[in-house]
Amino acid sequence: MKLIKITSIALLAGSMIVGTGCVRKLNEFGDMNLNPGIVAEPITSALFTNVLSGMGGEMWSTTPGYYSQLFSETQYTEASRYATQRADFSGYYSGVLYDCQNIINFNTNAETAPKALSYGSNANQIATARILKAWWYLRVTDAWGDVPYSQALKFNGIIPYDAQSSIYADLFKELKEAVAQFDAGAAFKGDILLGGDITKWKKFANSLRVVMGLRLCKVDAAKGKAEVLDALANSAGVISTNADNVMMAYPGGTFNNPMYAYYNLTQRRDVAVSATVTDFMNTNADKRVFSFGSVSNNPAIVKGFPYGLDRTAAVNWSNANTDWARVISNAMRTATMPMPILTACQVNLARAEAAQRGWTSENAATLYSAGVQLGWSQWGVYNAADFNTYMADADISLAGGGEVAKIATQRWLAAFPDGQEAWNVWRTTGSPALAVAPGTTVGIPRRFAIAQTQYDLNPSNTAAVGAIYTVGGIADSQYGRIWWDKQ
């Protein structure tokens, strides 16, 4: 099972060597100039499209989905039984982050900026690339914790790791400055995500700041609150309706929805919707369950797969229950199904949590109800009668107490199928209350351990970071808590 997007280009002494992502080849861009850190004549719109094209696949990151229990493994159950995952983050740097940086460089350099105008105004290209670069870095740091950042992508030899607190501070700055940087010039060509709509790009950036701000609730609530308030005060607004949803569209053919490619084209069958999800949704009559997973032989039931079974038990259960739920209903899981990146449901629920924590003067209950309703509409299951019954359920209604936990549980569901975002919500709030895999004696992993490649090529810096995450005498433990993941 592919954990993250990884290229075959190696790191040079721990730095991010010149390279491109899995899709593009370096020689497509012509000869290199004397600066090894910049491509001489990049087609920035093509780089932009390449960076965007990977976002949908990033949402299909299954290992974080096992940790957050959105998914279950049906055959090879090592990840959901917490075998150490030493994933290599170098592919992000040599691929999408490198492309983002080249867009910025080409539009900043006085010699090349005039050439880039063919693909949109320099300011709009830079602003868009800064937002995307922040989004990708957020995926990396939220998975590993401290990672190379301030000196990465500069090609200056051995690269130090940055503290996640510093990374977050700069990502907040980058997103805010990017929103202010857009001008009235031409939009960036090659925009397969938001169609060149600058207002939507601004809303995307502001919404990311809201979600990021809530991550800080346990470690720096004052900073988190300030970022949430500042983002909400921005004149461009945030994602608030399903028309604003950031969704990666797929034309089909050679560019298919990744879950369709997984189940329908490759005929893989080793990832299921977890029973943790379906049990909660079935018990509370959450109609989204019929979109989240395929129905069983009984069309009234979506049968989730028990979470965390050992291999023998998983194979036996699968053989006896061949109608277990594949991720996304068969009707919805098509080659052209859009993949949600960030939605109004998620943002409204994040605002509800911020309000419930006393960070804003907004009405938490109103935002909570609106957020859940937007989620039902997004997944095509909304009707007033069923929705009202659902919202009155004791496990769902805020009237029964446990407000933050209930909002967080809805945020966990709203992330589906983005396992990493669901993992982020759980690590931040502790909700929902996830049980560990049966028969295991340790808790659920809190981060990815660093790949051996990094120890080989950047030993001193990597070892120093590994020491930060020592648990039970084991350095670089996947049970070490990243900066914002505090007790």
The value of Rg in angstroms is 22 Å
What proportion strand?
Answer: under 5%
**Sequence of secondary-structure elements:** HHHEEHHHEEHHHEHEHHHEHHHHHEHH
Average pLDDT level: 91
Mind describing the biggest β-sheet? 2 strands, antiparallel
The helix/strand class is mainly alpha
Low-confidence stretches: 1-34
Percent helix, as a range, is: 40-55%
The main sheet orders its strands as 1-6
Instruction: Give the termini separation.
Output: 31 Å
- The tally of helices reads 20
Question: How many strands in all?
Answer: 8
How would you characterize this protein structure?
With 487 residues, this protein is mostly helical. It has a domain at 258-320. Helix content is 46%, strand content 4%. It contains 20 helices and eight strands. It has helices at residues 44-53, 55-58, 62-67, 90-108, 113-116, 122-144, 164-181, 198-215, 221-233, 258-265, 275-283, 289-292, 311-320, 344-356, 364-378, 384-392, 403-414, 419-429, 452-457, 459-468; strands at residues 71-73, 86-87, 147-148, 161-162, 246-248, 271-273, 339-342, 449-450. Strands 1-6 form a two-stranded antiparallel sheet. Helix 6 packs parallel to helix 8 (198-215) and helix 17 (403-414) runs antiparallel to helix 18 (419-429). The chain is globular and about 65 Å long. The model is unreliable at 1-34 (pLDDT under 50).
